[in-house]
Amino acid sequence: MEVFDCIVVGAGAAGIGIGCVLRDLNIERFVILDRSEIGASFRCWPAEMRMITPSFTGNAYGILDLNSVSLKTSPAYTLGTEHPSGPQYADYLEALAAYKQLPVRTGVDVRQVRPLEGGGFDVETDGGVLRSRHVIWAAGEFQYPHTAGFPGAEHAIHSSLVREWAQLPGDEFVIVGGYESGADAAIHLARSGRKVTIIDRSGRWTEKGSSDPSLTLSPFTKDRLRQVEDGRIRLLAGHEVHWIERKEEGGYLIYSETAEGESHFLTTEQPPILATGFAGSLRTVEALFEHEPDGRVRLSEHDESTRVPGLFLAGPSVAHGGLIFCFIYKFRQRFAVVASQIAERLGVDLAPLEPYRREGMMLTDLSCCGEDCTC
Amino acid sequence: MEVFDCIVVGAGAAGIGIGCVLRDLNIERFVILDRSEIGASFRCWPAEMRMITPSFTGNAYGILDLNSVSLKTSPAYTLGTEHPSGPQYADYLEALAAYKQLPVRTGVDVRQVRPLEGGGFDVETDGGVLRSRHVIWAAGEFQYPHTAGFPGAEHAIHSSLVREWAQLPGDEFVIVGGYESGADAAIHLARSGRKVTIIDRSGRWTEKGSSDPSLTLSPFTKDRLRQVEDGRIRLLAGHEVHWIERKEEGGYLIYSETAEGESHFLTTEQPPILATGFAGSLRTVEALFEHEPDGRVRLSEHDESTRVPGLFLAGPSVAHGGLIFCFIYKFRQRFAVVASQIAERLGVDLAPLEPYRREGMMLTDLSCCGEDCTC
């Protein structure tokens, strides 16, 4: 049986990013496993979709490209664009893996992670069992569409399953969910001449809102919405969808309510679009974590499971209190926190982490974070 | 005569930014003077022009908005856009000046800065003389179009004097200079249906080039160029314009040469557009600085004149060796360096500078900077 010091599950933004830190720490026996290929989730994006955080080569002046997962790299530099498409971003991750000579094994499906009595893990894959002292769960968060929110959701199409908005048949659409995915879908449908109604629980489009972009639409999306021809997109704000029904004569009936109980019925010819987010791939290892009351996994201050030592979490599902690390420029700040714990236990020299600390890629003091802007 | 501890000349990005630091340091007797109004140069931008560095509210996670001039502020948050127009950016500067209650005096033209024998300065304005121990020269760099490069340049229009590209009469244009201003002009002319030829000394459009955006086109501009309809913009790369002549029958003749001496003649009906940059407003105080062989002013490690102590420089004309601080996200890193020097001499508590240091707004070690990206 192959034995490792560390197994990273997932070769996406989190897996490749943390792999770079392990490489810089000269950890020798580690491997990155991916069911598919490097950056596979990004390759599945709808054709029109782009990163919402802008890429810019500020690196040389201490401002790391927002979409970079590693020091001294910049998607803006590699790709020459401010808002990469999914496949472009996957190209950047591949270039980085090649440059750092990361030990990535693709086409390996992790089925179970089993803690061993004396510490460490057996990682069961479709190609056999691997053993490791440490496991970093960095599997994609955007693989399992969140579809089960209400009765009749099965009649709808999840936004992530659309290959290209321009090719979707139909003239009028209803989108359930008005955050980034819903807005993105609406923008591309409107650009290709269709009319769209968005049903959203909140009214965040119209408010200035928080300065934390996890809680408000990105500037990129606000700009794009302003450019849409008047009347193409209608926002039904403050409405929660309760059910969808298929009508006998064809088409769909969508029922929504406001918080005050005001009812609204909408009909649409085309299947409604669900922009309701994703269930993370954490479920494979869910039982190995304790959970917070809000359902998120409970993590130690080093993003380690509080139930099973040696199992770490990296990527957008990392959360501490009110702080959600859902964007790349946020969760990358925790890579070196995790890696330093593992390195310490392996007795490896921590000196290579100094540049990470200096460049803001090793966020240990969380008191600094959260709502910030005064103007 | 009014006496100050510090006079800041210019209420643009540099002047307002450094004013915020002086305010945070509780320096009491300072004033910011501007010939016109806050952010006046930004209000003069052509209507279609936008900031080329993207604004994003990463502040709460330690990544200050690239266009912010002060901690805990973000143009993306204030303006809700990724690429502000000139007037929008001036609005942000005004909001910031109001929030920080900066002592700005507008409509005051500084005519001369005269060093005094015992130290300090008399600052002669159109409204009388002010005296100060320290002067920070933060006057705009984009006020004096650079037009005198070659014979016949007077026949051309400098890009900064165009109010709106869409309104400029004519169908075909020649632009001299292919860096950001030239590319921006070409993009807007092409978008409004015109054909454009750009003559540029280098061929930087076609190369991947440096990862320092001072030396290569921004991702924003590369993206916009890709979106221009094929054939609308032609780049005559590697050509230097030698002269422009007015033709008897109307129109203009433009002569350019390659480094190898290859000649090229172009004719155009409309006056050529000069996108050849600006002469900074430093000339008012030029004599108070020593100069480097490349013509830039020589600065101490605190951005102070090496000839006249007490006179500091802030803004895009700051340079150290090969490092050019021409973008906002670069030159703002020197505000606190200057302010700490002044505060120290005034015997003021330096503790308020700690957040600046922590957030990368106090760049003292320049060895970190320069070419950086590996991929």
Automatic annotation (TrEMBL), chains A, B:
InterPro entries: Auxin_biosynth/cation_transpt, FAD/NAD-bd_sf. The keyword Lyase does not apply. The keyword Oxidoreductase applies. It comes from the Bacteria. It holds the Pfam family Pyr_redox_3. Keywords: Monooxygenase, Oxidoreductase. GO terms for molecular function: flavin adenine dinucleotide binding; monooxygenase activity. PANTHER family: FLAVIN-BINDING MONOOXYGENASE-LIKE PROTEIN (AFU_ORTHOLOGUE AFUA_4G09220), NAD(P)-BINDING DOMAIN-CONTAINING PROTEIN. This is Monooxygenase.
